[in-house]
Amino acid sequence: MPNILKELRQSRKETQSQVAKNLNMPQTSYQKYETTDINSISSSTLLKFADYYGVSTEHLFGRNTKKGIKIPVFGNIPAGIPIEVLDEIIDEEEISQDMASRGEYFCLRVSGDSMQPIILNKDIALIRKQDDCETNDIVAVHINGDGATLKKIKKEEEGMRLIPLNQEYKPMFYKWKDVEDLPIKIIGKLVETRRKFY
After folding, report:
1. Active-site annotation, residues
2. Where are the domains of the chain?
3. Chain segment 172-198, per-residue pLDDT in tens
4. What's this model's pTM, rounded to 2 decimal places?
5. Which of 103, 118, 148, 160 is most buried per CB count within 10 Å?
6. How many distinct helices (H) and strands (E) make up the chain?
7. What is the spatial distance between Cα 185 and Cα 149, in angstroms, rounded to a whole number?
8. Residues contacting 5, CB < 8 A, separation 6+
9. Strand order of the sheet with strand 105-109?
10. Is the fold of 5-60 the same as that of 69-194?
11. Is it true that domain 69-194 has CATH number 2.120.10.30?
């Protein structure tokens, strides 16, 4: 059976090393996954690939004929305004019906270089709506009433650390009282990035 992983990776203009790094696996392992029979890959690994590429596991086997679901892309998400009522939609992205069944999603066009080299300026960040997260998740967060920004989060005993991936920027630490008072609110978790070449 043809292996669709290479096709999915190339459609996103990503290298094997980029995908392997994003999935936290050795590049040599990912190379083998692209060349092996899809039926020989474990179900847990297939689920990881399906989630990463935003498709169903059925799609990986070449059996997905369902139409995708359109979700909005925002250039900015002001604090305090429900996403459902925002009308400043700058584009649309498509996700699978299988993915849509696992939560509510929106997209945010990245502005700035604080998350380079993994996430670049003007990348499309696919976000699953949620108001909490785990340490080391990358989240869309409102800080003190500003628009949404992407940061890696680290929860500590004394407070919360928001960490840019670009080492030229310093992490921001907030005590738990400040998180409540400012406030700092998580609005979603990054599940995928997409890149367009205009």
Report:
1. 114, 151
2. 5-60, 69-194
3. 999 999 999 999 999 999 999 998 775
4. 0.65
5. 148
6. 7, 9
7. 11
8. 33, 34, 38, 49, 60
9. 89-95, 69-74, 105-109, 124-129, 184-194, 138-143, 149-155, 159-163, 172-175
10. no
11. no
